[in-house]
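As noted in the main text, all predictions were made from sequence alone. Below is one such record, for Cytochrome b/b6 domain-containing protein.
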Amino acid sequence: MTLANTSRSYGSVTKSFHWLTALLIFTVIPLGLVANSLAEAIVNPDIPTTDAQVARAALLFSMHKTIGVTIFFVALARIIWTLTQPHPGLLNADNKPEAFAAETVHWLLYGSLVLVPLSGWIHHAATTGFAPIWWPFGQTLPFVPKSEGVAALFGGLHWILQWVLIGALVLHIAGAVKHHIIDHDQTLRRMLPGANTAPEPPEQHRSALPPLAALVAWGAAIAGGAMIGAFGHGEDHNADRAALAEVQSDWQVENGTLGISVTQLGSMVDGSFADWTAAITFDAPDAPGKAGDVEVVVSIPSLTLGSVTSQALGPDFFDAAQFPTASFTAEIHKTETGYEARGPLTIRDQSVDVVLPFDLKLDGDTAEMSGSLLLDRLDFGVGQSLPDESSVAFGVAVDVSLTAKRGDD
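Prediction:
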């Protein structure tokens, strides 16, 4: 058996690519389906979640993603090799309907082997969350922003295209079995290891219709997926939240960010609250002492936290439905080294006294501040069903920065 193809048979390189791809596909699809089923159970508020379940889902997702990226590169290498080789002709080329179907399925398979893992990879790169790809080249992709919109688009495409791949795979296997059992020809044997005695194929009738038919099939699948809401899984989780009322304040916040960072299964997940208000009174004292007061109200449903947003807003964590706001009522104090906000932070109706140290830059009537503190989620009853740090760490980092302007007297 030679390395290269001939007009009658496949070489050992092509056969190796074929069976390696088959092994990877028959591994990655079950992994993805089982991991997705576990993830749906984890975010379902009616199903109790344990550390072991979260860890198992993350493990399966990491395996799925890593094998998916492997398939992408194997598929590219296979396509490049195929372009350099003669393509053994169809043994049933005289049966034009069957030949057309076989060519169309081959186009769907080759295209899906690139599109399915690529769409999943882009979805992974566009979001933040657990279950990293196991390789040393990072988790991002060039030109792919961290964006819920991008993640929703490519997550939907990945879900749709995987079913196109599965359908094409079923048709491909059915065709091979038909050739072997019903037609008794050498089509399947040509791809098996070892030499074969395949006859010279009949004259081939090449056409542009099979690739066009494959494009139509992909388009129909995407349109059908859109109609059933396949692109809605990553929609804004906060679209229906009620905006917080405006507050009267001596200092009006012009812009700012309120972010949190959690560690899940060893990976940092960053998020932020889009809707919060701050009522501030402040006069810079000459000496250390009280400098003012601040009352912050945060809309919990406005949180985005990468791929775990739904889980974070669920009953076991922030429970946004029952506790839609958090608050921080504090006194502002000037210290020897900077400033601190001291007072009770209330989350899920649990109040804990905290100290937020921050840096302050004053320029006339404009103030810029930035500060951070580390909270223990268990102090507020967040994630009580995960009582250790094997899946979600206790520490939650909070980072706040804002620019405020003194109002007119």
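The CA atoms of residues 102 and 175 lie 8 Å apart. The first helix runs from residue 12 to 43. These features were considered when defining construct boundaries for the mutagenesis experiments described in Section 2.9.
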